[in-house]
Amino acid sequence: MIKHKKQVMFVEGGTPLSGTVSSSGAKNATLPILAACILTNGSFSLTNIPNLADIHVMVSMLNELGVGATFTNNTVHINNTSQLHHTAPYHLVTAMRASFFVAGPLLAKTGHACVPLPGGCAIGTRPIDIHLDGFKKLGATIHIDHGNVSLSANTLRAANIHLAYPSVGATENILMAACLAEGTSYISNAAQEPEVTDLCYFLNKAGAKISGINSSCLTIEGVRSLKGLDYNIIPDRIEIGTLMLATLMTKGSIHIKNVVEKHLSSLITVLKQMGAAIKLKQDSLFIEYKNPLTSNNIETHPFPGFPTDMQAQMMALFSVINGTSSITETVFENRFQQAQELKRMGAEIRILKDHAIIQGIEQLSSAEVKMSDLRAGAALVNAALVAKGTSTLFNLYHLQRGYECYWEKLNALGAKIRVN
Ligand code: UD1
What we know:
By secondary structure, the chain is an alpha/beta fold. The chain is built from 14 helices and 24 strands. The strands form 6 sheets. Strands 3, 4, 5, 13 and 14 form a 5-stranded mixed β-sheet that branches. A 4-stranded mixed β-sheet has the order 22-23-1-24, covered by helices on one side. Strands 2-15-17-16 form a 4-stranded mixed β-sheet, covered by helices on one side. α4 packs parallel to α6 and α10 (311-318) runs parallel beside α12 (374-386). The model has no long low-confidence stretch (mean pLDDT 96). Residues 28, 31, 98, 124, 126-131, 165, 167-170, 191, 195, 307-309, 331-332 line the site of uridine-diphosphate-N-acetylglucosamine (UD1).
């Protein structure tokens, strides 16, 4: 079992953020790329890896499967030269859903994969039917019993695979398997998230033949093997977005280094509509609260639409903006859990199924609140930064799953956060 430290966060609200901060590497790009290392042969290093609980789970998973992996100083050294095991341990898959990413690469590399069903989580049931449908089309035999998915195929054969939904995880899993299939596969209605693109670039550098990158139709010409190579992970657009919203909420002004503008275009468009001052220069982003922001309406969608991973933090921002804003969540069915906790801080929010209506108020007030999941946790931290008084935040391990040194970064920008 992965043990979570029982830490509590105390946030004294009221200080505008100011200064310069660097983004970390993207967790959601790192996890599938680590899984893709199963497909490779040799020794190499991945850099700009965030030091996060989820990353350590995937590193442990690789070691359990026979891929040597060590994490030091934001770098993972891979040594994939031994025989692989094809059974993913239950405790690692249940510790993190993204562990299911090993299914496609294991199947392609060894002909077998036995991976426990990942199950749902706080934000939704999160089925894996689209992943399994893709593996089946590539020729895999699938058995599900005793809570495990067993996949096997002597040879994977190329296929035309149309995804019922542009799922990020399914696109990545199927894509990884198709790299070693015989022939040319096509994935249509593929996810186009920057993290999918980063995986494609990594695989192509390793010798895969993927084209159509950055589009909804990927073409994968199967190859016999992939070699290892050094690779630098993209910046975390969700961490950057969360810092941007924290700045606007505290009426501050910050400079974020290591930013890729095109990864953030939908968020930047929405924030500019609301009156935020945002400037980009090379890989730097400058954001400043100049005048009172106006309310807005957003709807989450797959990339390039507004990211569901920024929805909770937007709800916190809308809570302190004059006027009525709304959010429609179309990606996950149960992703408004931050609303209850924001209401404890005085926010005026009404939820109608997948729709939230937020009436902005002058000021939130401090409260004891509980993080229910990663992004909900980030929303609560941002809200606490502007609430009157000192808020107490529980279940910090959710935040630690996805934000590297978040409160240290905020404190360096002037926030008053203490963790015990
Ligand atoms: C990934 C991210 C997660 C992010 C999400 C949306 C990682 C590790 N996780 O999750 O942080 O919130 O993208 O950007 O990168 N679905 C099915 N069947 C499937 C697969 C998905 O019905 O087989 C549904 C899901 O229940 C959900 C929707 O598709 O309603 C989107 O899920 P998906 O894009 O797969 O998200 P994840 O890859 O799980």
